[in-house]
């Protein structure tokens, strides 16, 4: 039978709520558990400093989990024994640490030097950008563009330049501020270790809080939400790294200043769907415009090609249909996330919206599912 949208009134009260409320009334123990759970959520919402290490630990967990599973699956000897999961996790951590050491040596240190040069040149760059804007304004006056259109162009150029430079500086300041919070970051591998090792136990601990009549549905919801987050994070990390490397390579061969900075900026802004690549391209276009209009055209063409490769090749093959959201819903989610939490909110908006869609779908059609059986 086809699914019909739920209507107002009793049609919205699903078996999840009706049976759950009845069970809670009959069982004081369940009420106590729910109260403790709500209290825990309230306390968690008030301790915002732990959000950063927790989010990073979750990201690390989802990124490394396939590698841990692969190590555990390797047979040892003729008896087909396997490494204990805890040892496999430590081995993956060790290999990850070696990889990060190589990245720090050959990428991070050169990037820091280039970024320091960029910060030192920023006042000079801003002066050049202002001169470029004045030149464009003069050309607009000579072309006798109507005042309304000229004002729109001037405001747009000035706003875009200021926003792009400010965004670049704030993004990198945020990255370096993460590095200064060493005590919090030291918690990340510890949390990730226990998430990787005890995921099933943690899931069972959440499921047991619910009445037995709906525990299977809760399991389905948790597993589907975990799959959405896992696929999204791993896919987004891979896509961001690929785009960052492509932008760095392109800017390096086009001889645009600060290719490492522009590559890392592209990596960071790629996490913001739809508008992220546009934001990441503005600083490169401005830097190229300071050299010559021809270089600016080449950079614009390069970013257009990268955007087409991303949309038609990279994202479909890596991300697939992980986030099955309409573009309009993605844009609305970005606006809401940006309004509440700025850039961080925009990065988290899409996966949160996808999780809410999974949860809503399971709750909204429970009545129809029961009728179809």
Automatic annotation (TrEMBL):
Keyword Nucleotide-binding set for record: no
Membrane topology: Multi-pass membrane protein
Top-rank taxon: Bacteria
Pfam families: AI-2E_transport (PF01594)
Keywords noted in UniProt: Cell membrane, Membrane, Transmembrane, Transmembrane helix, Transport
Location of the protein in the cell: Cell membrane
InterPro entries given in the database record: AI-2E-like
Keyword Cell membrane in record: yes
Transmembrane spans: 21-44, 50-76, 88-112, 175-196, 237-254, 260-279, 286-309, 329-356
Record-stated family: Belongs to the autoinducer-2 exporter (AI-2E) (TC 2.A.86) family.
PANTHER family listed in its UniProt record: PERMEASE PERM-RELATED, TRANSMEMBRANE PROTEIN
Protein name: AI-2 transport protein TqsA
């Amino acid at each position: 039978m086809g699914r019909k949208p739920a209507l107002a009134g009793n049609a919205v009260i699903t078996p999840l709520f009706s049976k759950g409320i009845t069970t809670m009334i009959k069982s004081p123990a369940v009420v106590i558990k729910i109260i403790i759970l709500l209290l825990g959520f309230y306390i968690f919402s008030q301790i915002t400093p732990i959000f950063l290490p927790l989010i990073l630990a979750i990201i690390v967990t989802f990124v490394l989990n396939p590698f841990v599973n692969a190590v555990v699956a390797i047979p040892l000897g003729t008896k087909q024994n396997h490494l204990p999961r805890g040892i496999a996790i430590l081995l993956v951590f060790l290999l990850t640490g070696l990889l990060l050491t190589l990245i720090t040596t050959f990428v991070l240190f050169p990037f820091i030097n280039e970024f320091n040069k960029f910060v030192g040149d920023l006042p000079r760059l801003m002066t050049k950008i202002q001169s470029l804007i004045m030149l464009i304004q003069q050309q607009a006056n000579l072309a006798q563009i109507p005042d309304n259109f000229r004002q729109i162009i001037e405001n747009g150029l000035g706003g875009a330049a200021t926003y792009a430079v400010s965004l670049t500086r704030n993004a990198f300041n945020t990255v370096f501020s993460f590095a200064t919070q060493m005590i919090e970051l030291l918690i990340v591998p510890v949390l990730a270790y226990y998430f990787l090792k005890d995921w099933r136990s943690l899931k069972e601990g959440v499921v047991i809080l619910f009445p037995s009549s709906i525990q299977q549905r809760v399991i389905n919801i948790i597993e589907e939400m975990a799959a959405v987050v896992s696929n999204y994070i791993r896919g987004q990390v891979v896509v961001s790294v690929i785009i960052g490397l492509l932008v760095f390579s392109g800017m390096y061969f086009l001889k645009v200043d600060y290719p490492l900075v522009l590559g890392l900026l592209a990596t960071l802004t790629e996490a913001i769907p739809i508008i992220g690549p546009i934001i990441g391209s503005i600083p490169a276009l401005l830097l190229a415009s300071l050299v010559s209009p021809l270089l600016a055209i080449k950079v614009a063409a390069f970013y257009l090609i990268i955007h087409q490769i991303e949309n038609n090749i990279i994202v479909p093959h890596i991300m697939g249909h992980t986030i099955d959201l309409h573009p309009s819903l993605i844009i609305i989610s970005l606006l809401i996330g940006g309004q509440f939490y700025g850039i961080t909110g925009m990065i988290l908006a899409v996966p949160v919206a996808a999780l809410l869609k999974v949860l809503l779908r399971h709750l909204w059609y429970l009545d129809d599912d029961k009728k179809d059986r």
